[in-house]
Amino acid sequence: MKGDSFSELIIDHNSGAVAGEEVITDADDLKAAKEQAAAMAMTRATLDVPVVKAVQDNPGYRAISVMPKLEGGQPVADVILIKGPDVKKVTEKLN
What is the pTM of this model? Predict the structure, then answer.
């Protein structure tokens, strides 16, 4: 988020470095970005906190996605984990 503009970062999966940035213009994507920003505005936590907890609580899995959201008025993060062919989603608190 930069001012009133939202961007999506493209990550190089080999290096973990930011490979590019795309401004979000699609109405549905922009709505989702604003909802995610609202969740992050309600917490001091960063998204690495729920990712670390989810990976620690699920040995052998690695995180491939994290999305903040409001659930029952509270900020949480949905973390997508993968282990071989197994994929699961866990929700961690952001407070």
Answer: 0.81
Q: Indicate the burial class of 54 (C-beta count within 10 angstroms; 0-12, 13-18, 19 or more).
A: buried
Return d(Cα 59, Cα 92) in angstroms, integer: 16
C-alpha dihedral sign at 72, 77, 83, 86: positive
List the structure tokens of 15: 């290096």
Quick check: 63 and 54 in contact, CB under 8 A? yes
Mean pLDDT (whole number) for 13-38: 91
pLDDT-derived band at 13 (thresholds 50, 70, 90) equals confident
